[in-house]
Design goal:
- This protein has 553 residues and is an alpha+beta fold.
- It contains 9 helices and 25 strands.
- Helix 7 (497-520) crosses helix 9 and helix 8 (523-543) runs antiparallel to helix 9.
- The longest helix has 35 residues, at 457-491.
- It starts with a helix and ends with a helix.
- Residues 517-529 and 533-553 have low confidence and may be disordered.
């Protein structure tokens, strides 16, 4: 019965799962644009490749001609397992190809306006990423820049986003800063972020956010959860502000510089009894050959059973010799052949003499080159204002995995706008993806969760549980009571309905037999018959009070 109940539970659970998994209409995507200022927003409502988003026609430098072109394909389409009908994004379509595409901002972003920078976009790795990137580059503002010329050497202000190759994962935040003294631009990297491997393989849409504030602090978030933070002044490598002093590249250690901390004692003399010729080990003078050692017997002998192969040609193969085997006479002996005493350490051995080491009176310490003023030194207490302005956003990527999905790009100077855009788009999408994801709950956890979502299921569960219990009570307890009563009657002489019916039937049969007999015999015979009946009745009454009562009646 318990097994039947479990099967019933599983059946109900499967029915519910099948109902939920049935083809339900997907929610219709509705474009939601936040209220507030933004420099760039892209939700890919139409196929704008070639009009707004321009593929690169440039070539990479210093690589083979076959790899120099940006031949990777892009498309605007829905993701493979979209949860919103009509929702589209920018998809990297090619595998093992260089991809480059970019678009202009509505207006350039300038850091000297003292407003924060928020960069936010969605990425969905539809196939588990093996090796490739999904980062964006904020292209430096230049009057002569064309989107079709975008390539790996194009100057950018900030690079931001996830990257993976093999087991190594990165979450880039790189700023390029111009040295005001030398006018050279150098890259500065944020400290390594703790990045979950699952974002590259779980097939869900993830939200990447960078917040860079005018107080020079930054925050990096994934799915609205902070994974890294720091300051442009203290947490970039190399530091944006260079050191005041540097090592003099022209300084060299003088030849007379003595950096030996200890030297051999020049006054030490080898003792006269020091014999460098004594060996390290000598034969043990106290050893003796073990009893039974067979010095005249070799350790190996020729195999007497060996036969020269038929194809052996002595003219070409040489004289044939049988193979060697262990000497059977040595099997039970302690040894065979010439005996040599074992070696022991030589008590007179001292080795090569060397003078002892003493403190060097001329020691000058470890030499270090002198430091000079850094000719490239500058100090910028507010590097945020000095960051390079940018006017375009681009994706310049190499990937060994295709179908990387990008959507909902936003560049703004208002954190509330970014939060509103995330809530209305990514949060809503994430809830649908989580709801459609395969559940890892147990059967009973799944039943409880679904009942909480659909309260009417609790009534079904109650019926499923109570009906088997009632049936068990009726069939098991009812039969048990009837059987117990029968057993009790057998233990006593109490009259039962069955006993009374049997007794009445038996009495009728006996009366009929008596009447027939009375017709054929005389008076004496009738009396004998009656006497016998009375006797039988008396014996029956003694055995069964119930029957005695019936007979009396």
């Amino acid at each position: 019965m318990r097994f039947k109940i479990l099967i019933f539970f599983l059946s109900v659970y499967c029915v519910i799962c099948e109902e939920e998994a049935s083809d339900q209409p997907k929610p219709q995507y509705v474009r939601k644009v936040p209220d507030g200022p933004h420099h760039f927003i892209e939700t890919f409502e139409a196929d704008i490749i070639g009009s707004k988003w321009i593929k690169s026609k440039a070539k990479k430098e210093d690589v083979e001609e076959s790899l120099a072109k940006y031949e990777g394909e892009w498309a605007i389409e829905s993701s493979l397992e979209t949860v919103l009908e009509g929702d589209k994004g920018l998809v990297l379509k090619s595998k093992a190809k260089h991809h480059a595409i970019s678009a202009n901002l509505a207006k350039p972003f300038k850091f000297n306006e003292n407003k924060p920078l928020i960069v936010q976009y969605e990425v969905k790795f539809q196939n588990a990423l093996e090796c490739g990137g999904a980062y964006v580059k904020l292209v430096e503002e230049k009057s002569n820049f064309k989107l079709e010329d975008f390539f790996d050497k194009t100057s950018f202000s900030i690079m931001f986003g996830p990257d993976k190759c093999g087991s190594e994962t990165k979450y880039h935040f790189i700023v390029r800063f111009k040295n005001p003294v030398t006018q050279k631009i150098e890259e500065h990297h944020a400290k390594k972020s703790e990045l979950l491997e699952s974002i590259f393989s779980d097939g869900r849409t993830h939200l990447f956010t960078l917040i860079l504030r005018p107080d020079n602090t930054f925050k990096m978030l994934i799915d609205r959860v902070e994974v890294n933070s720091g300051s442009l002044l203290n947490d970039m490598t190399p530091p944006i502000n260079p050191p005041k002093e540097i090592v003099d590249p022209n300084d060299k250690k003088p030849e007379s510089w003595d950096d030996r901390e200890k030297i051999a004692d020049p006054d030490a003399v080898k003792p006269e009894d020091w014999d460098e010729n004594e060996p390290k080990t000598i034969p043990d003078p106290n050893a003796s050959m073990p009893s039974g050692w067979l010095e005249d017997e070799p350790e190996t002998v020729s195999d007497p059973d060996a036969v020269m192969p038929e194809d052996w040609d002595e003219s070409t193969d040489g004289e044939w010799e049988p193979p060697q085997i262990d000497n059977p006479r040595c099997k039970n002996a302690p040894g065979c052949g010439k005996w040599s005493p074992p070696s022991i350490n030589n008590p007179k051995y001292k080795g090569k003499w060397r003078p002892p080491m003493i403190e060097n009176p001329n020691y000058q310490g470890v030499w270090e080159p002198r430091k000079i003023a850094n000719p490239e030194y500058f100090e910028d207490s507010n590097p945020f204002k000095s960051l390079l302005p940018f006017s375009s956003v681009g994706l310049e990527l190499w990937s060994m995995t295709e179908n990387i999905y990008f959507d909902n790009f936003l560049i703004t100077d208002d954190e509330k706008v970014a939060e509103q855009f995330a809530v209305e788009n990514w949060v809503a999408k994430n809830k649908l993806e989580m709801a459609n994801a395969p559940s890892s709950d147990s059967v009973f956890e799944g039943l409880a969760r679904r009942a909480n979502e659909n309260p009417w299921l609790w009534a079904v569960y109650v019926l499923v549980v109570l009906v088997p219990i009632v049936l068990i009570v009726v069939f098991c307890c009812g039969k048990s009571g009837s059987k117990t009563q029968k057993l009790d009657n057998k233990k006593t002489d109490a009259v039962t309905p069955d006993d009374e019916a049997v007794a009445e039937e038996q009495e009728k049969v006996e009366d009929e037999e008596t009447e027939e007999t009375a017709g054929d015999v005389g008076k004496d015979d009738l009396e004998n018959v009656e006497n016998n009946e009375n006797k039988e009745s008396t014996e029956s009454s003694n055995k069964s009070p119930g029957r005695r009562k019936v007979r009396k009646d």
